[in-house]
Amino acid sequence: METFRVLEVKQSIFEDNDRDAEKLREQLREQGTFLINLMSSPGAGKTSTLMRTIDALGDKMKIGIMEADIDSDVDARTISQTNAKVIQLHTGGMCHLDAEMTRQGIEELKADGLDLVVLENVGNLVCPAEFDTGAAKNVMILSVPEGHDKPLKYPLIFQVCDVLLVNKMDVLPYFDFDLEKLKEYALMRNPNLKIIPISARTGEGMNEWTNWLQSQIDEFKK
Amino acid sequence: METFRVLEVKQSIFEDNDRDAEKLREQLREQGTFLINLMSSPGAGKTSTLMRTIDALGDKMKIGIMEADIDSDVDARTISQTNAKVIQLHTGGMCHLDAEMTRQGIEELKADGLDLVVLENVGNLVCPAEFDTGAAKNVMILSVPEGHDKPLKYPLIFQVCDVLLVNKMDVLPYFDFDLEKLKEYALMRNPNLKIIPISARTGEGMNEWTNWLQSQIDEFKK
Question: Do A127 and B123 make contact, defined as CB atoms within 8 angstroms?
Fold first, then answer.
């Protein structure tokens, strides 16, 4: 028996995404739900980072996860092993989520009463960066095997994010990856970007990440 | 001094991409230029695989490379160290190339007289798969760190590709990556897909890949 719903989300027909995003952000503000938009390349470790995050914060607050995918329920199935509420969003081939699709997910998740909701966006460094989902904060994961030159090639996503989690730090010795160069390139795109090296496998850096998240939620709830 | 040009490519205003693609394929057929459309996630190793490919085939045939990127010349700069002709295509934020953008690149590259041209598409598993570029063959790179579940999540790109290169085999011991499961999932999407495990770093599998490519070009030239 499935422990999560699957929702086929539809793009907004009105196409004023910025207005839709502001409206959703206002609604979430009123109901006290902190929404994170989590973006990365395919396979950078969004779901495993979420598993660690739920493990660290799941006893202190009510968490909901929206897993967006073109097709498949792989990630929702994984998250459903935790105490977080989870829903799978299918985008029907779409390469990103807009604010209206996010709103449909929030409604179906029945997010009222949840302290933190994370939208796991489609694995893609290009299109998701172009659409405000209505989230309070945008978070990006870049993994060590992808290389430190990515801020040069995918500028926008680094500009729109508040936090950059540099995942798979445990395999750093096996790759030509220069963390200092990554920081330099990323801060060139966005001087306010908070950069936290982590390993979702070993747990490295997860305290710094979840402490940041907790402090943001505390601030939001004030 | 730059050894390559940078071209700002524009999307077709006619929007009959399939017709444009057929037209370009016919033109390339007539001039005897074999075009490969190379797709992958960001950081899967497209450029380093191309470096190895040029190294293996560059003395036997005339090769041209079109490096597509949203912004930056990082990859064209790398390729310009080889004896291949290279051009950088800037997509101006676009997440993929269509046939008209490819045609503009072919024209600027002056591809007439080249035996093999490789279009390195924007790093993205979603959008590039939706647009026929006019290439004779589509090739995809998936790297070990991305995980073996990708054919479940990004079905279309596996369906449209002729060859799947599984890169970064040298780091297999450090990841939970099941090559047999990947093959099973990928062949489920596309039973005709040729799957070649490689390492652009160590050279593993490069013979099988370049032999395949050589045989395809020989066939094409007949």
Answer: no
Cα A46 off chain centre by: 7
Place of tokens 């489609």: A122
Mutate to test the interface with B, among A74, A95, A176, A189 (most CBs of B within 10 A): A95
Cβ–Cβ of A145/B145 closer than 8 Å? yes
List, for residues A137-195, the tens digit of each pLDDT value.
999 999 999 999 999 999 999 999 999 999 999 999 999 999 999 999 999 999 999 99
Q: Report the predicted TM-score, pTM, of the whole model to 2 decimal places.
A: 0.93
List the one residue out of A96, A84, A49 whose CA is nearest residue A198.
A49
End-to-end CA distance of chain B: 39
Count CB atoms within 10 A of the CB of residue B64.
Answer: 23
Query: Between A71, A95, A153, which is nearest B153 by CB?
Result: A71
What span, in angstroms and rounded, lies between the C-alpha atoms of A73 and B140? 23
Closest CA to B45 of B10, B3, B75: B75
- In whole angstroms, how far apart are CA A157 and each of A18, A125, A140, B43? 17, 6, 8, 15
Identify the CA nearest to B63 among candidates B48, B50, B76, B75. Answer: B50
Alpha-carbon distance values, B123 to B42, B43, B44, B50, B71 (Å): 4, 7, 8, 14, 12
Per-residue pLDDT reduced to its tens digit, B150-187: 999 999 999 999 999 999 999 999 999 999 999 999 99
- What whole-number distance in Å separates Cα of residue B128 and Cα of residue B158? 12
* Beta carbons within 10 angstroms of residue A99's beta carbon: 23
Of the partner residues B143, B154, B156, the one whose CB lies closest to the CB of residue A145: B143
Phi, psi for residue B46 in degrees, rounded to 5: -65, -50
**Closest Cα in chain B, distance from residue A41 (Å):** 7
Residues of A in Cβ contact (< 8 Å) with B48: none
B117 three-class SS: strand
